[in-house]
Amino acid sequence: MRPTLLDKLFADATTLPGIGPKLGKILGEFTGDKIIDLLFHLPSNLIDRQYRPSLTEVEDGRIATFEVEVMKHEAPRRRNLPYRILCGNETGYLSLVFFHARGDWLGKAMPEGAKRMVSGRVERFRDQLQIVHPDHMLPQAEFDKLPIVEPVYPLTAGLSAKVLMKAIQAALPQVPELPEWQEEEWLKKQGWSDWRSATQAAHRPENMAALEPTHLARARLAYDELLAHQLVLALVRRDRKKQQGRAYQSAEALQKRLRELLPFPLTGSQESAIADIEMDMSAPMRMLRLLQGDVGSGKTVVAVMAMLQAVANGAQAALMAPTEILARQHAETLGPWLDELGISWQLMTARNKGKLRKESLDALASGDVQIAIGTHALFQGDVAFADLGLAVVDEQHRFGVQQRMALSTKGNGVDVLVMTATPIPRTLTLTAYGDMDVSRMPDKPPGRKPVDTRVISMDRYDDVAQGLGNALQDGARVYWVCPLVSESELVDLAAAEDRANALRAIYGDKVGLVHGQMKAADKDAVMARFASGEISILVATTVIEVGVNVPEATVMVIEHAERFGLAQLHQLRGRVGRGLDKSSCVLLYRGPLGETAKARLGIMRETEDGFKIAEEDLRLRGAGEVLGTRQSGLPAFRLADLEAHADLLPAVHDDVKLLLERDPLLKSPRGEALRVLLYLFRRDEAIRFLQSG
Ligand code: ADP
Ligand code: MG
After folding, report:
1. Residue 395 C-alpha to ligand 2 middle, in angstroms?
2. What's the CA gap between 212 and 202, in Å, rounded?
3. Can you list the domains of the chain with their CATH numbers?
4. Span from the CA of 556 to the centroid of ligand 1 (angstroms)
5. What angle do CA 156, 159, 162 make, to 5 degrees?
6. Whose CA is nearest to atom 20 of ligand 1?
7. CA distance 37 to 472
8. Mapped to the 3 state alphabet, what secondary structure does 468-511 carry?
9. What is the DSSP letter of 72?
10. How far apart (Å, rounded) are the C-alpha atoms in residues 258 and 340?
11. In the prediction, which pLDDT does 616 show?
12. Residues with CB under 6 A from ligand 1
């Protein structure tokens, strides 16, 4: 149960002045609909009202403040005209302009002859100075109430700056004092204040410097968020280490037979990953291991070796892919090996329906099937295994901490192996995957031909399009990727259709199109025609469909390459260069390119090492981008900025480690306070791990 002292913070935002049900809904989608969500929404700018020029000297377009006398009201003569109030002082005249104004209200608020302080953005209209809808119009008794600086918050459609600012400022005095969850010494050393003061200070910036992420108040709040996150990962990890898992015997005989079936020797990276996994699976604890290796580094074989160990011990194993196509491809690769080894397996997809599905489910439940291959849906609903021993999750793009937690608490002692082709820089691994053990696979299978990568301006589109002709004559197959450019999928689809049509004008029915809005069966059909060579140019809108393996594909063209993350570009490029022929990758960009964009595309030309690309990407773009939610499954931080606060990460890791050594059950006063912290950041799922002791 959430501690009652947080009740105020978790009250609905609609309890704040100016926030009705409609705004509450908008906030719900934008920031979250509780007061705490607004407090986590920090200002991005500020308005400085210190500029108080004379009316003769004021600069156009600036926010300015004047003391004036109200001279004359001019009600509009036609409906569409604004209401004007003419004001002035000894230095000149100023019109206040109101659209859709309520004249009676303005008449009362601004009586002729009264003194007022007005503040807002000044502009010149037909040689007259005016302010449209002033931000403030204060009577003389309240002159000292004019805020000198006002925070400005990021906004969304339907939410006005003033309303949001007022609501947040109204929430600030109600912020409760919370027990301190940071170490006294550490706070002193950093010069940080308590949580309440820091929250209030972050929303009352006094100058631009106070908006910097490294400002004392913001740094403290960032530390809190990172601390909550890291504490959860550590608790999950510890809980798992305590859980009884099964100690599997090693599966030497089966693994040896698989090695004999493979037409290649394993790489050093594969061997050491296999050894890591074998050690985990042989120990009486649950495994939760991340296998990080580039596209094409050969993770699949490693996964099979792990599954063999489960199977050799009489348990079942499941391999889960993010899409149907990938699941099928796994089945095509593994199926023959498993058949040869006499292991029963089955492909489970959402498309197995009715009787077929029932039969599959029965086979899993009875244990007739030893290895199941399918999409993540494999784990949902009515699916029951006789005795699941190992779950392998391929490509965890959409597989975040929450899902990992859910998976590892499912079943009794199921070992989990997560495979990702998104290399994360070493410095960020703990932050992203602190709950897991990690094996990295830096080597690639030998004999892979480097992909010739070129960065080419869209101005040369015609050359590129015509140039494909030569490649096609040599039997090449070409991916042409059009990225998500606009917010609307329909617009993107139109762009891809245009591209497909333009290429059809040259290459006729050799061109196919696959996009995210097609039905799964239609997508598969197009992919199959591409794989068989019936079509040789495949235009794709989104990256998801390109996870497939078509060894004959040797050309990858990526349009608007400057809009992709490096990790994505790297993954896309990994789809070619898988066969025997020389491959190439064309990164088409629309100029002009900024320095960073240029450097980023340059890296793609220089290296194919995913780990190196990830490090460089981190250097150029910052951690927030590298660890974007989409790519890593890491929750988006609201207060912490992994780039600006990178130097806090080691401190957070040490803090958590030491803390759990000293106070493993969070029973000390600091431990109790940390529980509050977890609730504050809605990371309280992990608290249940403390009850079990
Ligand atoms: P990943 O899943 O890591 O992207 P895969 O497991 O699909 O990579 O392997 C890519 C290709 O490399 C497959 O065709 C696979 O058979 C092959 N391969 C895997 N390991 C080796 C190796 N040690 N030597 C040569 N080829 C390998
Ligand atoms: Mg793979």
Report:
1. 7
2. 10
3. 50-145 (2.40.50.140), 177-242+648-693 (no CATH), 252-441 (3.40.50.300), 451-607 (3.40.50.300)
4. 19
5. 120
6. 298
7. 55
8. HHHHHHCCCEEEEECCCCCCCHHHHHHHHHHHHHHHHHHHHHHE
9. E
10. 9
11. 83
12. 264, 266-267, 270, 293, 295-301, 421, 445
Assess contact for 581 and 476: CB atoms under 8 A: yes
584's enclosing H/E stretch is strand 583-589
Indicate the pLDDT class of residue 147, thresholds 50, 70 and 90. confident
- If residue 632 lies in a helix (H) or strand (E), which one and from where to where? helix 629-632
Angle at 89 between CA 86 and CA 92, to 5 degrees: 75
pTM: 0.70
Question: How is residue 301 annotated by DSSP?
Answer: H
Q: How far does residue 402's CA lie from ligand 2's centre (Å)?
A: 23
Please determine, for residue 546, whether its predicted confidence score (pLDDT) is greater than 50: no
pLDDT in tens, 417-432: 999 887 777 777 777 7
Predicted local distance difference test score (pLDDT) of residue 631: 44
Main-chain dihedrals φ then ψ at residue 131, nearest 5 degrees:
-125, 120
Residue 629 — very low, low, confident or very high, per pLDDT cuts 50/70/90?
very low
Q: Which atom of ligand 1 is nearest to the CA of 293?
A: 3
Name the least confident of 85-89, 152-156, 374-378.
374-378
